[in-house]
Amino acid sequence: MSLHTTRRRDRVNDHRRPVVAMVSDAIYPYHRGGKEIRYHELARRLTEHADVHVYTMHWWSGPRQRTEDGVTFHAISGMHSLYVKDRRSIGQAVRFAVTCFRLLGSRFDVLEADHIPYFQVLVLRVVTTLRRKRLVVTWHEVWGKSYWRQYLGRAGMAAWLIEWLAMRMPDHIIAASPQTADRVRVVSGARTPITVVPNGIDIDAIRNVCADPAATDIVVVGRMMAHKRVDMLLEAVALLHADGLPVTCRVIGDGPERGNLHAKAQELGIHRAVDFRHDVAEQKDVYALMKAARMFVFPSAREGFGIAVLEALACGLPVVTTSAPDNLARHLVANSPRSVICDATAADLAASIKLMYLRDAPADDHDVNDAWLAEYSWETAANRVAEVLINEV
User: Fold this and answer.
1) Within 10 Å of residue 4's Cβ, how many Cβ atoms?
2) CB 112 within 8 A of CB 138
3) Which of 216, 324, 331, 364 could lock onto 344 through a cystine, CB 3.0 to 4.6 A?
4) Hey, what domains does the chain have and what are their CATH numbers?
5) What's the Cα-to-Cα distance from 311 to each of 272, 364, 372, rounded to whole Å?
6) What is the model's pTM?
């Protein structure tokens, strides 16, 4: 009798639901980004199929264990900063990885982990092997050898080796996009099954939000990280001002680059035209501010999917993004005939923004042909993830 058959029989005999352990060092709403939103939306929907336990850092005040929306959260480590200046902290990654050994004493039938920041995947392989459980890892993006060298210099080769090794650890990989799946497959080969489960959006929630009264020409949403290239957007805005087109811009988000971006706007002389919003806590408020714009600009140099782009398209906004090779959000933009993909330079970004500004009136999301967005629902994503996690338990 196979191990999987034995597990299914035992679960029927003890009349219990399967237990899914999900491991991620950063969770929503304490840390806001695409992958955090993904875990937030999927975890609570997976409770329809299983008991869901999320293992993370101690982001909240109070006891180390709490339950919300049917999901039980466990703080397996103290709270440590994710970043040192504008880069992920190696110390935090190692400390969190070591604390993942605590899952040796936890009850679960299958373990799913976020691939970032890699070290914990190696530890969780040991944990699941000793516990004779499956390890499933969700891959949001592949950095690759060249990007690691650009990011860390000589030390980038060691980081690439860790990423390469981590990709060979799981029993099953969930990829956030077809392009990420292709990149993972180049490294892992055919030995590891890969299932593509794109990120989702709540289309009904977006549709039910009215535009904020504070209008703007351009909006961008995301973590304020160097690779998001909001600095290039500010340069494009300055070029447009110099060309006699005084566009306004709203930047929604927070992160390590916050101070640098404020200083950049001052230096370029466009600070009065840029509305930095670091205080937006609710998604409905993000949607309202997005709908108040004429267009969404997404200059990111590296993006594994791009939930914000999908949300912008659902809001009825045309999108300007770049052809940067690691910006996989450009594949979403290709579905929108009103949107533009340009070269990753401030001059080309400015030219595309000007073209969009002169061509398009402010968006009316009720007139948008977005039938293709229906495949990107969180319910669909949760059902696909459940098939991977639970069907073989």
Assistant:
1) 12
2) yes
3) 324
4) 3-200+377-390 (3.40.50.2000), 203-373 (3.40.50.2000)
5) 27, 14, 13
6) 0.83
CA–CA distance, 63 with 52 (Å, rounded to integer): 18
Q: Which two tokens stand for residue 273?
A: 């035209």
Q: Which of 52, 21, 54 is nearest to 131 (CA)?
A: 21
How many residues does this entry show for the chain?
393
Integer CA distances (angstroms), 307 to 31, 63, 318, 330, in order: 15, 32, 15, 12
Tokens of residue 39, six digits: 């875990």
Q: What string of pLDDT tens digits covers the 393 residues of the chain?
A: 444 444 554 444 445 799 999 999 999 999 988 899 999 999 999 999 999 999 999 999 999 999 999 999 999 999 999 988 778 899 999 999 999 999 999 999 999 999 999 999 999 999 999 999 999 999 999 988 888 888 888 888 999 999 999 999 999 999 999 999 999 999 888 789 999 999 999 888 998 999 999 999 999 999 899 999 999 999 999 999 999 999 999 999 998 899 999 999 999 999 999 999 998 988 899 999 999 999 999 999 988 888 899 999 999 999 999 999 999 899 888 878 889 999 999 999 999 999 999 885 555 544 455 677 878 889 999 999 999 999 766
Contact 7, 38 (CB under 8 A): no
DSSP characters over 305-347: S-HHHHHHHHTT--EEEE--TEETTHHHHTT-TT-EEE-SSHH
Return the closest-CA partner of residue 136 out of 30, 46, 65, 6.
46
Whether omega for the bond prior to residue 117 falls within 30 degrees of 0, making it cis, is: yes
For 185, the token pair is 């497959």
Closest listed residue to residue 39, CA positions, set 392, 387, 282, 381: 381
**Structure tokens that stand for 360 in this block:** 């398009």
CB 271 within 8 A of CB 265: yes
What are the Cα distances from residue 89, in Å, to 83, 86, 93, 115, 123?
5, 9, 6, 15, 18
